Amino acid sequence: MSSASDLKDDAKKDGNAAIQISGVSHRYGKGRGEVTALGPVDLSIDPGSFLVLVGASGCGKSTLLRLLAGFESPSEGQVQISGTPPMPGVTAGVVFQQPRLFPWRTVGGNIDLALKYAKVPRERRNDRRDQLLSRVGLEGTADRKIWEISGGQQQRVAIARALAAETPLFLLDEPFAALDALTRERLQEDVRQVSAESGRTTVFVTHSADEAAFLGSRIVVLTRRPGQVALDLPVDLPRTGVDADELRRSPEYTAIRTEVGRAVKAAAA
């Protein structure tokens, strides 16, 4: 199986986008009850980008994420990942709002199951599991029960599990919404670093202009339903080698956060 870095390099060589969204709209229901949740949307995302989707509730952010994961197919238009339609469990590792871990398995057991489904050879799973737990700051927790660790740690396990398979995409649907502010900031820093280290193309859904400004290399604000692109903003902030608190205090960060916040309010009006 190709690694994320291989897929990124191939996409660059071929001149292909990692994600191509062409004329995509999506509807739910039928007849008089039909609702258009999204679209039309056109986006082309470069390999290795960290795209943040921002907007009010019901604007289609999570719908677009499900289309990228292959959980649903668009009503109109086309979604392609590195030139092919998305396939559930193959295209992307996904982190949801809740960790959705198996409580009867240990921390390591949850990772082991993901590695099994990813067809990682049995003899490599222990090392790979330890690498993943180390990457999210959970060294030495493999034997802990899920109920023995905090909510923030459970979400770290969910992130490690999503990284178990070498998929080209890393998708996160408001993964920190239920966490306290301090834990949320710490996990934002972790995801930012993990994404940079893995080289995967990342799409992150949030309501927060602060979160978008800190995480994104590109920010897309969606209008209220049906969600369309209201702002498409490239972000030229350093991705690595900078202190997180220093970045949050910078005038560049403040300017981006302000622009995104205004766009979200205007798009929701």
Please name the defining characteristics of this protein.
disordered N terminus, alpha/beta, Rossmann fold, three-stranded antiparallel beta sheet
Tally of DSSP helical segments? 9
Q: Low-confidence runs (pLDDT<50, min 5 residues)?
A: 1-15
Under the CATH scheme, which class of the largest domain? Alpha Beta
Structural class: alpha/beta
Helical residue percent?
25-40%
Distance between the termini: 46 Å
Query: How does the overall form come out from the CA principal axes?
Result: globular
* Relative strand content: 15-25%
Nearest-integer average pLDDT? 89
Give an account of the 3D structure.
The protein folds into 2 domains: 190 residues, P-loop containing nucleotide triphosphate hydrolases (Rossmann fold); 66 residues, no CATH class. The protein is built from 9 helices and 9 strands. Strand 8 and strand 9 form a beta hairpin. The protein is globular. The relative contact order is 0.18.
